[in-house]
Amino acid sequence: MTDTLSYAMRNVPRYTSYPTAPHFHSGVTSEIYADWLGNISDKDSLSLYLHVPYCRELCHYCGCHTKATRKDAPLLTYAKTLAQEIDLTVRHIHSAGKVRHIHWGGGTPSMLPRQSLIDLTGLLRVLFNVDEAVEHAMELDPRLVSADLADTLATIGINRASLGVQDFDTGVQKAIGRVQPYPVVKAASEHLRAAGIDALNFDLMYGLPGQNRKTILETVEKTLDLAPGRIALFGYAHVPWIRKHQNLIDVSLLPAAAERLELADVAREALLEAGYVSIGLDHFANPSDSMAVALADGSLKRNFQGYTTDQGEQLLGFGVSSIGKLTNGYIQNMPDVGGWRRAVEAGNLPVSKGLALSADDRLRGQIIEDLMTNYTSDLGQACKIHGMDLSDLSQSIGALRELEEDGLVEVNAQNTGSTRIDVTESGRPYVRLAAAAFDSYLAASMAEGKVRHSAAV
Length: 457
Hints:
Blueprint: H1 4-8, H2 30-38, E1 46-52, E2 54-55, E3 67-68, H3 73-90, E4 99-106, H4 114-127, E5 130-140, H5 147-155, E6 160-166, H6 170-176, H7 182-194, E7 200-206, H8 213-226, E8 230-235, H9 257-273, E9 277-279, E10 283-285, H10 290-297, E11 301-303, E12 306-308, E13 314-318, E14 323-326, E15 329-333, H11 337-345, E16 351-356, H12 359-374, E17 376-378, H13 379-385, H14 394-399, H15 401-405, E18 409-413, E19 419-423, H16 431-436, H17 442-447
Parallel strand pairs: 1-4, 1-13, 2-3, 4-5, 5-6, 6-7, 7-8
Antiparallel strand pairs: 8-10, 9-10, 11-12, 14-15, 15-16, 17-19, 18-19
Helix pairs in contact: 3-4, 3-11, 5-7, 8-9
């Protein structure tokens, strides 16, 4: 029998997409993306993602594509180019359904000047058919949320806000370069609610330097005092080979593998005891929250923002490094502001790379999303939808044997000739390992040393 610690420390993707972003390539060009955009129809609902790669300062733990600036000039210029990219993209879309979801990420998108935010959201409503019930979300730095900003966000239609809390312990905050005392986060929450934005998400992290059982339980307790509707509990991914500024983290302060697993367990148990519903791998929600409802009715999704209620068939990404997903495949924008701006100003879609989806990719992507969201997948039904045969998955089914023997998954042959995969209650923290069994790219890429991933828990 394999011990749980061994499972927890295995390196596998987070599966916010399949195939995962490291497998995108330059063969997908702006011309190809333009063709894909032209295939969108009025039957396709849309989701829009806008990436703003600026913060006032860089936090040591951050894994996002962002840079620090204290000046407004780069933000004004960025907003202008972002508007140009949105307009350029829409020119390639002949028809489309309603926009169901808008998400601003970063970085700290609220750093854009007030008028830029008003102009950009106005442009979206002019160029797209935005649903009246659209979920319009933005990621925020609690330290920058004032009453005036909250009013601005309400003015532009933001109805869900995600606050990057991470941890409330002063020592941990100093170790990760993000000092924001509890009163600061409380004030931010109060400003947002006073402005009518009462759908709040808190992002917490475990595995940070200096964390221990006591500190993480105190963080959960203070989070519960502020009563966010959703809580994301992410494992810190120490990947300094990707994000060089993570070298500022003192690795001697990082919890050992067993401690990291304990931190995840105690935080999870405290949230469940408080009445939150466990959502997939790392999210929790009040039972009345739309995400808990989506889990119950089987409509929960997973994309580059993590678990989501977003039902848009086509995801359009705008801004530096943003990722979109259309029926045909994935595209990712250029990662540098200069190259992105020059492409847009030249009238070209600023595509850096992407991946056209094959039938096998679609099949495995559905299975992985099913496992990551609902902990179950009917392989035969998935094969039928994508025109594949169950025998195409025989190697993946075999790869589950170790997890099955240890009671983490159940592999059940059905009377219909299908096979059903169920992740057990004890296996749920390791669901990424079950998903990895269906990743046809993973073994070769890791063997070649091309891709490195974070720990499974």
